Structures are given as structure tokens and as C-alpha cells.
Amino acid sequence: MESLYNMFVILFFLFIFKTTDVLTFEVDTYDFLMPNVHPHRDELYLCTPIRISPNQNFYIVGFKPNATMHTAHHMLLYGCSEPGSNDPVWSCGEMQSNEVDNLYTTASPCRSGSQIVYAWARDAPSLELPKDVGFLIGQDSPIKYLVLQVHYMTKFPEGKTDNSGVFLKYTQETMPRQAGVILLGTSGVIPPDSVEHMETACIMKEEKVIHPFAFRTHTHGLGKQKVSGYVVRKSMQGDKWELIGSKDPQLPQMFYPVVNTDPIGKFDVLAARCVMNNTRHELVKIGATNRDEMCNFYLMYWVENDTPLKMKYCFSSGPPYYYWGMGPENFNRIPDLDNTV
Ligand SMILES: *[C@@H]1O[C@H](CO)[C@@H](O)[C@H](O)[C@H]1NC(C)=O
Ligand SMILES: *[C@@H]1O[C@H](CO)[C@@H](O)[C@H](O)[C@H]1NC(C)=O
Q1: Does 279 sit in the ligand 2 pocket, CB within 6 Å?
Q2: Is 197 noted as a catalytic residue in this protein?
Q3: Where are the domains of the chain?
């Protein structure tokens, strides 16, 4: 184990493990796995980085997870300008930064330029991006590092180690459509024994047109009904709410195809809602551990001959401080609360 900590950042793409010819261009695979870590306590978030060769462009075109829900509660792949730490492995629970770990340094996944590239939970299968679409990383991208975060639920027995992670499919062929992800979510609290709606919304301010193609929902145990994402088109006649996608978060938390691929542009509003059923007799807050909750809607999109949105996150303070009806967006025709879409 000790030798692991002395190892420096692993150079990306020095080793090509497998080469397969798909269509007309070459796709290689990079095994991005935890370096045999030992989760020494419950609810541990661990991060490991790879530095991307700074003088080349690569496009990630697929993700093959290598994990099971028995050990990993979730995995997130972050793109960063700078990683949170220079260690080969560090403790990176976003909301437990005040916690001191005796084995690992504590830092966030990224020191700067954080964005989500991929997410996995509940035994979700592989994800292939559509034809001509790829996540640009390296030279011409703000993504100079990738950081893999794994949330381990429980402490491992003595001597047992883990190498959960994801096999990245990538190419050096230029993809005309760059992929991006925006994460919509909330903070907030859910009162005991009640159904609560956690809502967020953000106006599109950039001169860009995004084409949504996949979405993923994430909650913990209380997200019992649906998590839904919408695009709201503002007009003189009133707001038009178009569903982008809606899913029961207790199903495999994979990226599913959107139900509406209509392009989304400047002044449209992205919005998401989680319906939470708190059957516990205590207040539940948004937080990092499995006893807390989360309300997340990930939207994956492509842009044609353009760079992805600068807006990577769209978070609200959540209940009781924010609902769609209270926001600066001045929404009307808000979808019915009893309507579970
Ligand atoms: C991950 O992949 C390695 C081989 O690359 C394998 O030995 C290991 O069992 C896999 N882990 C899981 C959790 O699937
Ligand atoms: C919340 O959960 C309880 C217990 O499972 C159930 O009886 C109730 O119908 C649920 N409420 C909603 C709105 O789903």
C-alpha cells in the first residue's frame, strides 16, 4: 500500500491497452481504475487523477463502468483544469471538508475548472455517445485532468482492496460535435413524514445552441417517484414547459435517451424537480452521506462546431427557500404538483 502514495500522477495515454477499429476511425481504451485502494471507514469518498497529455486532443466517445453497487454507492468522473490534490489518491467527499482523515489528505475533486463528465450508480451499464459526438479533453479543452471519484458505502475488511473505475473509450479523430454535461440540483431540507418537491432552474445566457441527448437522475432512498427535467420556453402567451426526461431514481441510475431532442438556446430556461417522499420521522437534508439525500438531474448534450456551455452547474437552495413559484424566473403554468411527470 505505502508504495502507492509515493507514485506520482499517472501519465495518461502512455499505455494503449487495446485498439479496435470502429467505423472509420480508431478507438482506444484507457483503464481508469482506483489503484487498489483500501476503504478504511464507512462513507468514504476517494479520488484518483489522470493528467491528460497537454499537447494533444482526445475525444471520449464511450464509458464502460467497472464496479458493482455492493461496494460503490456511486462513481463520478470530473473534468478539471487542476486536480484537487497532487496525491495519487485522496479523500474527496464534497460536503465533509471539515473532516480530517488519518490516511488520506482531504480535498475537493478539482481545485479549479470542475465539471462532470460521467456518472454511474446502481449497476448502470455502459454508455456510448451518439455518432460524431465526443468529450474533448487535452490541448484545446479546459479539461486538463480527469478525476475519478468513488463513494464507498462501507469499510472494507482487513487486506481487501478495490479497483472500481471506468474503461474510457477515446479517439484522436476530431469529432464535429462536442459533448457537455450540465448538472441541475438542489440543496435544502425535507420535513419528517412528508412529500417535498425539490426544484431548480437556470436561464440560458450564452450564445449557444445545445442538443440534449441523454439524462440521468440521482437521489438516495427517498426519491421514490420521479425526477424530471424540463426546458421552459418563455413567450408572451405564457411559459411552455417541455419535458426533457423523467425517471424513477430507484431504477438503474444510467444515462437514458431524452424524450425531446429539440435544441435549447439563449433565454430558454432549464429546470428540474425531484419528488421526495420522506417516510422517516426526522428531517432529512441534502448531503454527502447515504443518510442524507440528493436531488440531481444530469443533462448530456452536444454542440455543433462549438464549445460546450460555460454553465456546468445549476443549483438552487431548495426547500424551504426556493421553489419554482418563488424564483426570479417568474414562471407561470408550472406543472401540477400532483402531476408526477
Ligand atoms: C475491474 O476490472 C479488473 C480488471 O481490469 C477486475 O480484476 C476487477 O474485478 C474489476 N472490478 C469490478 C468491481 O468489476
Ligand atoms: C409516501 O410513502 C408512503 C409509504 O410508503 C405511501 O403510503 C405514500 O402513498 C407515499 N406518498 C406519495 C405521495 O407517494
Answers
A1: yes
A2: no
A3: 28-175, 179-316
